[in-house]
Write a structure and sequence with these properties.
Blueprint: H1 2-31, H2 40-49, H3 54-63
Helix pairs in contact: 1-2, 1-3, 2-3
Length: 67
């Protein structure tokens, strides 16, 4: 239990960044109609299944259409 308390100052900001990135990515997928590759359903599945940093980062690199 004390080991977990040592890492909380590092873990809490990472969790906040992860959920912020996930929220932004889901918002962008839902509100936009065009993507570089794939379609809305594909990106929703990828982002939700790979919910850790990987899914949102993949979308931002490969799916997000430049405006």
């Amino acid at each position: 239990m004390t080991e977990l308390r040592e890492y909380l100052p590092l873990i809490i900001p990472l969790i906040i960044v992860q959920f912020s990135l996930l929220g932004y990515t889901l918002f962008h997928i839902i509100t936009h109609k065009t993507y570089k590759r794939g379609n809305r359903m594909l990106w929703l599945i990828i982002v939700l299944v790979l919910m850790n940093f990987i899914g949102p980062i993949l979308y931002l690199i490969f799916g997000k259409e430049e405006e």
